[in-house]
Design brief:
This protein is α/β, with parallel strands linked by helices and 182 residues long. It contains five helices and eight strands. The strands form two sheets. Strands 1, 2, 3, 4, 5 and 6 form a six-stranded mixed beta sheet that branches. Strands 7-8 form a two-stranded antiparallel sheet. 33% of the residues are buried.
Length: 182
């Protein structure tokens, strides 16, 4: 039984929903999982975990600054332990941009950080116009109009492939041990 830390950064709550599904899958595989927000992870001793998973959403083409700060502050332990990263973005709704190697946001992110995660995933996000503030709603509608996505102001569209999320959860359970001699 492994102890897995699942850290998330979310803007509107969808990455947390994905993490809750991952948590469920990991527990079904008889592992212990701790789910914590990037805002609260500074209080957690990462060394007590056997593996670390970081999930982060994209807003306006970037992951939150705290994601970069978490990686910079914890690079030695991330490199020492089995680990994984996943990005949540609406551009991943398009099949040609739905894999780690083809998703432009994930590829850009990987070039900006020193960490090279053991496992990667990209999940298509969710559009929830009623939840957004006025400016975000207008900006996202404009982006969706330009990329031929949903623009109706009352639209709520979940593009997430939940089977893909569950498969990633099982993959996380099979992360290799990085300890010397293992």
């Amino acid at each position: 039984m492994a102890r897995i830390l699942l850290v998330y950064s979310t803007t509107d709550g969808h990455t947390l929903e994905i993490c809750e599904r991952l948590q469920e899958v990991i527990r079904q595989q008889n592992h212990r999982v701790t789910l914590v927000s990037i805002d609260e992870v500074a209080d957690i001793d990462l060394d007590v975990f056997d593996g670390i998973v970081l999930g982060a959403s994209i807003r306006y083409g970037r992951h939150a600054r705290k994601v970069y700060e978490f990686i910079d502050a914890n690079l030695p332990v991330l490199n020492r332990k089995p680990n994984a990263f996943f990005s949540v973005n609406v551009v991943a709704r398009k099949p040609a941009k739905s894999r780690p190697e083809t998703n432009p946001y994930l590829q850009k992110f990987l070039r900006q950080i020193a960490w090279q995660p053991d496992r990667l995933a990209v999940f298509a996000g969710k559009i929830d116009y009623p939840k957004y503030g006025f400016l975000d709603r207008q900006m996202i509608r404009m982006i969706m109009w330009m990329t031929k996505g949903p623009t109706a102001p009352e639209a709520v569209v979940d593009f997430t492939d939940w089977e893909q999320v569950e498969s990633f959860g099982r993959l996380v359970c099979d992360m290799d041990d990085k300890t010397p001699g293992a």
